[in-house]
Amino acid sequence: MIFGFWQGASGLQAGARYLDALAADISNVNTPGYKRHRVQMVEVEQGPLYRSDRVQSSPIPDWVRYGSGAVLGALQRDFAGGAPMATGVDTDLMLNGPGFFVLREENGQVGYTRHGAFRWDGQGHLVDPAGRLLLDVKGNPLTLPEKAVKAAIGPGGVVTAWVPKAGGALEAVTVGRVGVALEQAPQMLVAADGLYRAGPGQGELPLGEAGQGGRGDLQPGYLEGSNVDLAQAMVDLLVVQRAYSMNARALANADELWSSIHHLLG
Amino acid sequence: MIRGIYTAANGLLQASQLQDITAHNLANQLTPGFKRSLPASGVYPWHYLRLGGTSFLMGMGTGSLLDKTALDWSQGTWQEGGSADAAILGEGFFAVEAGGETLYTRAGRFTVGADGYLQVGAGWRVLGPVGPIQVKGAEPLEINSQGEVYAAGARQGLLRVVVPGREAVVEALENGAYRIQGPLQEKTPALLSGYWESSNVDPVREMSQLLLAARAYEGSRQVLKAQDEALQQASRDVGRV
Q: Model-level pTM?
């Protein structure tokens, strides 16, 4: 029996996931490189209830159509760019346009991110806040030469180190170029552990130089802000909460109707 | 009295159907392009009774029923979105492909799917004048007010917008899109870029309708109860010796 249960329940389920997405967005309003969710709900129409006493004479009989509520049609990310935040730290990087930084974890797995707060660690590697290695255009970790006393990242992602020569002078050595991966349809990426991984059936993304082949430019000294619009997210939160409680009311109503019939003869 | 029970049952059924329709509208308040269902009640066939041995005919109704449901085609509210959102100004539908068929929708939150094609709604491929629109190029995705699709500044295609003729029949399908049979006219897209059309559900009206359904149900239930009690009395007390 239908009685408004499935419609109300589906509205609550979809609404709960919508609220989850909004809550995640609001909690990440200050996370560099964070991409907000884009939620789309879709209606579910059950088939028509055919009226047996009607004769099928018109092209589409005037059946009573039953809707079965709503479901989440798509839960995606909005990859619009975030605002640049100047930090003055020369190992903070921002991609001004499409593309991702490429990180390698301890277990060898590759991940992608827009969060560009990198630091030199004790072993001379350029790492992210979780200790994952930043890769260059060839897919190798960016590693400083042992005796390097100074390093800088230039526009375009060229990493230069200065090594003391015999005689005290410093010699500039090119360490590598920060690799930028490009994905035509970033919706395929799966978000996990604070970075993106290649989705099922997706190979490793092609690496290239910043500013080449559609990739955005690299800006050292800046971080990309979260693209969450807090005002919009709060408004959405209110709206979705109200819709949620209305669906709960519809469900409760259906329950009352059921229980009143159930107690009719009892 | 048994006829009375059926009459009351018809009333219960109609009230519960009204509850279903209202719950469906409420569940889809936030669905892009959703059009709310309107219930239309009718009267169940009348019976004509002959009184006693006379030729006097009395008409008696046997309850109500949900005659048909219709869709309210009024425009939904415009929600501010991003560059990949577009709302149709005035009449018309976007053309999409789903299950090998050309279907139509007013949902306007566009994305690029995993297969590289422009998508909307529940993953339906969006159609241009010659077929599904393929997007070659990274995001950001942009839809402008003429319906042109851009990815990272390069033009990818044009959206197709159609307007059904007066005789066309629009059918709401299980997957949330519409099937249109009958005359269709291609329309030059005139869109509101940066906004998407939300549902046309008025929560106040729906909540009132929910209450109405509950009270109507209660009323018919009382009638059912009264009919049942009368029948009980007739079968239990009247025939007693």
A: 0.82
